[in-house]
Write a structure and sequence with these properties.
Radius of gyration: 19 Å
Number of strands: 2
Helix content: over 70%
Distance between the termini: 9 Å
Shape: elongated
Strand content: under 5%
Largest sheet: 2 strands, antiparallel
Number of domains: 1
CATH architecture: Up-down Bundle
CATH topology: Fumarate Reductase Cytochrome B subunit
Number of helices: 6
Length: about 190
């Protein structure tokens, strides 16, 4: 199990980042839906928001690490049987995923930072009660909060759709095409 990527396989750091982030993103999408749509109790919702913000920070940090890894380690070649439109779609989907895994936590942080509730109640953007995230501007702007809330919601929807397509494509490669694409993201070979 090598550290670096090769022409035919992903190294273990790339695979670890991929699967940890996949799990955290799915968790965050579910938690976000639950806290916004299913929880009426304000105290329970507050706790869920704090948890959501904290894991969002973790995802943002991992996203930066993943982007740095990807920038310094060439990815394996795509299977040779992929048509040019399939290659373009795969590359476009990956680029969209990278943009969205940065945009999601960033827009959430900006939304929370702009919230009038933060200013009114003296709430801080805490990460697991370990440290406070700085506010990029003075809290208390409902207009800015609404803009970032809209971006965050639409980006979550786009992320869910692209992730579903990404998973479907991986399963297609594994079980229909049988080209080992999924296997090398799981086992590295």
């Amino acid at each position: 199990m090598g550290v670096g990527n090769t022409a035919t396989s992903w190294g273990w750091p790339a695979r670890l980042l991929h699967w940890v982030m996949a799990g955290l993103i799915l968790f965050q999408l579910g938690l976000g839906f639950r806290m916004v749509r299913l929880v009426d109790d304000v105290y329970l919702r507050f706790g869920l928001y704090q948890t959501h913000k904290s894991w969002g920070f973790v995802i943002f940090t991992l996203a930066l690490a993943r982007i740095a890894w990807r920038a310094t380690h060439m990815p394996p070649e795509l299977p040779g049987r992929m048509s040019p439109p399939e290659v373009a779609l795969a590359r476009g989907a990956h680029l969209a995923l990278y943009l969205l895994i940065v945009l999601q936590p960033l827009s959430g942080w900006l939304m929370a930072s702009a919230s009038p509730l933060q200013d009114t109640w003296g709430l801080k953007n805490m990460v697991f009660l370990w440290f406070e995230l700085p506010d990029p501007f003075q809290p208390g702007s409902k207009g800015l909060e609404d803009i970032f809330k809209s971006i965050h919601a639409w980006a979550a929807f786009a992320l869910a759709v692209i992730l579903a397509g990404h998973a479907a494509a991986a399963l297609r490669h594994q079980f229909v095409r049988r080209d080992g694409l999924l296997r090398r993201m799981i086992l590295g070979r």
